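Q: Here's a chain of 242 amino acids. Please give me its 3D structure as tokens.
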Amino acid sequence: MRIPSKDYIEHLREKHPEGSRVQLVTLNDPYSKLKPGECGVLRFIDSMGTYFVDWDSGSGLGLVPDEDNFSILPPETTTLKLYMPMTLEQYERNQWGDYEGEPVEIPASAAAQYENLIHEAILRDRVSVDTKRGLMEYYNKLDSVNFKVKSYVFDVEERDGVLWGVAKCEVYGELTDEELSKLKANVGGQAADGYGEHFEQHEIKTEDGDIYAHLWNSGPDWSVGTEEELFGQTQEVEMTLG
């Protein structure tokens, strides 16, 4: 029997993370009670490439690629929210209704009232990036972040009277610290030079006049953080089927 290389095993583990759903097609074991179509949860892949599964029926039988035929289904995803400060600006109009001068930043105490209008504007604007993976469609690295993060889109959220931009990320399994840092960097890039640069150029009409929403600013306090990092709270996990 050929022993698989360490790199190949790591490739399998990245491709099929723990928690993936496994569905049996055929089994090369005439004595097993497992039937085609049965499902289970992948526990781990050992150094020989055997897939050890906690079957829904209670069995713990492992599967051997090239001998057993099975499908790997996406695991359940969790929603990870990454927050960033949002700023709103408004231009003063002259007596003829034209913009003039520099934009005026709307105070944080007044910005929260526009949450719903900004949310609606983001939803309308998502048509321009309406892909299955959202902005992950433009993540161009073939690494574990690309595999673990199913998708992410931007939104807005009010927290204690303050508006925040938020990237809602659908994630398979858990991200390592290094993977989370890479995802934050990508979200920050999209907020500054990608989607965010596009979105901030579109006015949002309100009863008080047109406003512009910025997911990014050049201030020293701007950063991308998790709910726990910014608010000292552990996120409530939202589970969805992949």
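Q: Can you summarize the key feature?
A: The first helix runs from residue 6 to 15.
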